[in-house]
Design a protein that fits this description.
The structure is a homodimer. The first copy, chain A, is α+β, with helices and mostly antiparallel strands. Helix content of chain A is about 25%, strand content about 30%. Chain A is globular, with a radius of gyration of 29 Å. The interface between A and B is large, with 54 and 55 residues.
Chain lengths: ~575, ~575
């Protein structure tokens, strides 16, 4: 590619709405442009990286025996009604009407469409197992799209679905995809971890997330050094640890004035107590009404765990208006005299004489005790695990440590959730109709690109792994004018192009400084710099973006230049 | 690909809604499946053909210097409001609201998005010309989706857009794409014609359609044998031919009873006159009110020509209720005493004593004459050209002949239509801001697949051109059981796979008859048949799908088999 005929859209400044490094760098490098909230154009250099990820995924899916199809983006409501998700999928499912007022939605995922497809085409156990995939745009109407293409509304996903005769075979298909995912992320050159995760509203019994590790990642992963355990903080089980201090004598409760103090920090600062003595009362709306949950002041609620425990789809903090009806004052909620069901995290079990809100404005209560002052419906593991919690494996007594990550892939065991609700069956060996055992497997293509940037960058820009860079090599003629430098650059460019290198020639009429900066920003692994000074010395310079070093190569030894690049790239 | 692990979904019968050959064959061959009106799944074999077309297009676009990007499917209303098309694009533009009630539409084409993109990124004449393309799904909410993926609502399009400094350069970009299109359809192995066409609601001054010729094509193309002229019947100009008969004496008009006779055929049959003596009066609704147009009984109105002449966006036959208000009876319209403007095709100019409707139920009028009985606002070229009309080039006196075709590609000169309405400019050499000169260029990927099927088939199924077949070669083990046939088949399969042939092995436990039928139906150019009988003779059989002949090749001379396939395929 000659850059004089190309669209290089680098910028000096990142837009003000770009919060994360990858978002900033992808915009500055001219890889993406926003056209509406969560909706992006992929510009030429961005699309080159995108296509490289896409090709690696397709290649490994084919090698794993998965079969490519293409399902539509606009999907009819009847399939979603059949599975029951039309009603329970929230606003992320963008519903629309066609000119005849029929209901459709933009596919956020394709379990319904693919189950219908396989049910119609694969009728016998003889044709199972089968794993079907596509690489295709999706839409999820996120309430808060952010971080560029990391959490976009329209995005491209590789989604695969396996169909098996029984659970054991389904386990094999799951592991087959799990292994394919490892090969995909290995080939992309990313540092990642596969961790246990929640299944969300896809449903199903078990799942793993593939996390690209990056300090600035949105997800928190806990892992154990002494065993294999690794899981998303949302789902990591917390082992009930016995409190070593003996229970205190119950003291009489006492109301205390705490004007305008609604946060744990404010209350502990004012009362000069430890946050482990505070108990937060969170009031939440669910499908089946309001509930309250008690969490210790230093802990965070895991929405995922509580949802699973209560077996509800909706679980959101109640609005001020709803609280009012129950005579609860926002910021001062407490369990005493509360007329809704109360659940409590296991950590509250042995706690006594704690501090809670009073349900009155500007006051808290000291020396509150469950059993005496209010009743708890049920204790459970409702908090997010934290750094230092004990490994939940049971055998090892090691502590968990946290890392941040970005979810780029997700594999789920679905069991018969969809085949049952949609009545999708095959004829088994004995002629009986049985429901398929399913699995589903997603990779966000654009998100892999963003995660690669988030994991690999420095002050000068992106440091792409070789397999993902928009070009492997950029030849930079450092002379603005046409002349010997450009001739030599063109000569080497033609040679490399003939030999199928992924090479760009920066023949733009720009200063060397701009050309170098763009090459660094775009994260191209090797720069071949050619200018009057180096030619006079009889050399061309080869800069390694990752190592930072510069080699001098004989300008006339084309075979030598090619051999060196071969050594570095292949 | 081993078919025992693949999804072959061939059917004996085509669905009842499949009217065209390609629709029937694509469903029967298991290439596509409908999931809603105009919305399809591409099954594995269909997608293989689709990807081959896609790859040829991408390769030739890149060679022509076009730059690939990816724009979104869901596009924000503001861009369409800026160009003015939000209001004038009809119901084919599927509008929707996101969760925040903001207006969006599913992109039916991307002039707006790309003009905005280029306007933001390409600021100087130095970076022009630039041609940008994508291969991406589109949605057009057709009132009558039909013919399978030929006229689907959701479909994948390669859409390219050129941006130039002036009209002369834009002409060059247009020709560059025109030539790329020829290479694309040549490589696909299709017989096609590039013809002059109408620009529709894309707008712009000039366009060509690429028509794949097929007897069952939806479009009628007229072309001249003595010169280069070829055009869609919708736009072919009709040369005014002087009538050789001298005008007759005007006779007094006379009402005649024609009970229930509303068609030209009924009236001519009843009155025993030639259809050239009938004048049809069509009443049409437009943006600016009702108009009537007169067309001779043996001719058809060209909506395209009349729209252009009247310069309107809307032009539809008026509904019965609208006619009633003007005291016109449907089926008996006539120009006498009509209170709306009347336009007439040039062929009416020299006609006299003709027959028209009377505007009363069940009667016509004989000996009607314009000038005497009613006034014509304007004559013009309003009819579709037909077989035998004179070539409109002006120089040659040859007659036009018609062929049927399927539009697979369309190239348009847009001029400054979009850059003006969207105020998209670049800085010219003299520093002045000027509007880009644009062109746009589309190819329907799925439609190319369907057109290839429509053009290439016989009683046994599809006869794919070599470049498009789902596989180039299928090796068929004609023995249901595992044994020598399957071993030999596998041996040759492995060899061909290693040498990068696009080969399938039919190792299914099916009868030879089913395997042969599937291979023929799917249009695979070469079958290598291996069974106990041929092995006993020391040979394997090579059947050529296109020529129909069968060659016998030495079963142990693997190099010889490979050489033969090389000779036939490369």
């Amino acid at each position: 590619m000659k850059l004089s005929n190309y669209l290089i859209a680098t910028l000096k400044e990142a837009p003000s709405d770009a919060e994360t490094t990858s978002h900033q760098l992808m915009v500055r490098a001219g890889m993406i442009r926003k056209i509406a909230a969560g909706i992006y154009n992929f510009l030429p250099t961005g699309l080159r990286v995108f296509r490289k990820v896409e090709n690696i995924i397709r290649d490994e899916m084919n090698k794993a025996g998965a079969i490519e199809v293409m399902m539509p983006f606009v999907t009819p409501a009847d399939l979603w009604q059949k599975s029951g998700r039309w009603d329970i999928y929230g606003k992320e499912l963008l519903r629309l009407n066609d000119r005849a007022e029929r209901d459709f939605c933009l596919g956020p995922t394709h379990e319904e469409v693919v189950t219908d497809l396989v049910d119609r085409e694969v009728k016998s156990y003889k044709n199972l197992p089968v794993t079907i995939y596509q690489i295709q745009p999706k839409f999820r109407d996120e309430i808060r799209p952010r971080f560029g293409v990391m959490r976009a509304r329209e995005f491209t996903m590789k989604d695969a679905y396996s169909f098996d005769v029984d659970e054991m075979q389904a386990e094999r298909s799951y592991l087959n995809m799990f292994d394919a995912y490892k090969r995909i992320f290995d080939r992309c050159g990313l540092t990642y971890k596969a961790v246990e995760a929640d299944s969300g509203n896809i449903g199903g019994s078990f799942s793993h997330e593939f996390m690209v590790l990056a300090e600035t990642g949105e997800d928190l992963v806990l892992s154990c050094d002494s065993c294999d355990f690794a899981a998303n903080v949302e789902t990591t089980s917390v082992r009930v640890s016995l409190n070593d201090k003996s229970p205190e004598k119950l003291l009489p409760k006492e109301e205390i004035e705490t004007p305008n103090m609604t946060s744990v920090d404010e209350v502990t600062g004012f009362l000069k107590v430890d946050s482990t003595l505070i108990v937060k009362t969170l009031v939440l709306e669910t499908d089946t009404g309001l509930v309250a949950v008690l969490i210790r002041g230093d802990h965070e609620l895991s929405i995922t765990k509580l949802k699973k425990f209560l077996d509800v789809n909706l679980l959101e903090l109640a609005e001020k208006e709803v609280l009012k009806k129950h005579k609860i004052v926002k910021g001062f909620c407490g369990p005493v005299d509360l007329d809704i069901k109360i659940f409590a995290d296991n950590s509250i079990k042995e706690l006594n004489n704690f501090i809670t809100g009073s349900n009155k404005p500007d006051s808290h209560i000291r020396n509150v005790n469950h059993g005496r002052d209010f009743e708890i419906q049920s204790f459970g593991d409702f908090r997010e695990a934290v750094d230092g919690d004990l490994c939940p494996c049971g055998d090892c007594k090691a502590k968990l440590a946290s890392t941040r990550g970005i979810e780029v892939g997700h594999v789920f065991k679905l069991g018969t959730k969809y085949s049952e609700s949609m009545n999708a069956t095959f004829a088994d060996q004995d002629g009986k109709e049985k429901n398929y055992y399913m699995g589903c497997y997603g990779i966000g293509v654009g998100r892999v690109v963003a995660a690669a940037v988030e994991q690999n960058n420095d002050k000068d820009g992106i440091r792409f792994p070789k397999a993902l860079a928009p070009f492997e090599i950029i030849i930079i003629s450092t002379d603005k004018n046409e002349g010997d430098s450009l001739s030599k650059a063109s000569e080497i460019y033609d040679l490399l192009l003939e030999n199928n290198y992924d090479v760009a020639l920066d023949d733009r009429k720009e200063s060397p400084g701009i050309k170098f900066k763009d090459a660094e920003l775009l994260g191209i692994p090797f720069q071949l710099r050619i200018g009057p000074k180096s030619l006079e010395k009889g050399v061309v310079e080869l800069k390694d973006r990752l190592l930072g070093n510069v080699l001098e190569l004989d300008k006339d030894d084309l075979q030598g230049i090619k051999d060196k690049l071969d050594e570095l790239l292949r």
